[in-house]
Design brief:
48% helix; alpha+beta; 5-stranded antiparallel β-sheet; two-stranded antiparallel sheet
Length: 494
Amino acid sequence: MAEDQQAFDDLLASVLTREISGCRRLNAVERLSGGASQETYRITIDAGDGERVLAMRRAPGGISLAEEERINPGLATEALLMRCARDVGVPEPEVHYVLQPEDGLGEGFIMEWIDGEALGARIVRSPELETLRGKLAFECGAILARIHAIDLAATGLDRKLQVITPAEFVQNTWERYQLYETPQPMIDYAARWLMDNLPDNPPVALVHNDFRNGNFMVNAQGVNAVLDWEVAHIGDPMRDLGWICTNSWRFGRSDLPVGGFGSYEDLFRGYESVGGNRVDPDRVKFWEVFGSFWWAVGCLGMAEHYRTGPDQTVERPAIGRRTSECQVDCVNLLIPGPVSLVEPADLTANEDMPRVDELLISVRNFLREDVMSQTQGRTNFLARVAGNSLDIVLRELALGERQRADELARLQALFESSQDLTSLRWRLVHGLRDEILPLDMPGLADHLRATVVNQIAIDQPRYSGYQTALGASTPGASMPGSSTPGSSTPGKNV
């Protein structure tokens, strides 16, 4: 049942006038986000001496879940996390009030409104932030060290947050991918590498778990708010350093491994400058690989949701195709090397009129030139996504058949078998899952690299990781104190 707007406004006004110092009345409330995970509101109040802006973060629909039904810590714990972080010098908005059951608004909290830039692409590219970018990696390192130093016992967070080990992270993600029943050998290769290279009894601390470019806010002076604590846990602190370095969050700047704006060296120096434990580059690399592995599986989850879920928007299968972006990032980290691209077919050689490509191009151009010029908001966005999906189909027509033929030839040579492509893909996947095939099996790395790089040539040839794989742009800088990002430990020979 849809929430009654007037009843919502009345309940909110009652809370504000009672709990917020100086509040005379509620002037306006605006929901800012769609709220797939949480809802965010901009609230304007009459504070007596003028208007004051606040923010509210609330569970979708105001529904409060029982403890046993929660996936994440919950918004009351999120508010506690923000307060604890603020107490140790992490830039955070002040939390003014945590909603109670008797308020009738569900689970959530009211906090200070903070102005700033949170869009990752703008943080990477905006001319206004050019001076800031030079010091941002160092600052992020210092912020993470302060988060990791929070006393779990003294704050009570040890009783509210889940402890998650590296092995549990990898195994849970791997098992989730297997439920999708799609053979993606590079994902299984990355999972095997991660299980073979698990950190050895790392120290544990509070982990934000989603600290990345796009999940903090900046102004001209630096970071002024750390956002989205909803997946915080207790675990290996190097998880946070690896996540901010994952290529998906560099927004096209693969040469700047920390969020697309800084270097490993600056991040690590910032971390150690405020008392953070000495950074372990090998553990950071482990979590960087995990980040791409995890997001590769997450993209497939969007495609699975399109097939089985109620929300079958054009956006979900498009995101599903982004799994190849994350897989090529795993290739660049674990098995870099030369690769040959298949030659595209000449679609114009077909004498049909109109050709299939002409039909697709006409629809794509209609979406981009007509629909997008006459729409705004989400409809405009989805039209752009639809046009991009048609570009993928066009590249699939030109490259797909030849790519699959080459993949089949490599697999038949690898296994000395005449089986079909699907059977051989599954044979490779099960060989990796069951540890029948060693990760250093002759020809395996070359096959995976060629398959993934040629796939992303279809899915998104403008992705920075694709350019890195081809050697067309500078790879991410070597991690100080570690082997180069492309090195890997051979898997088990069984």
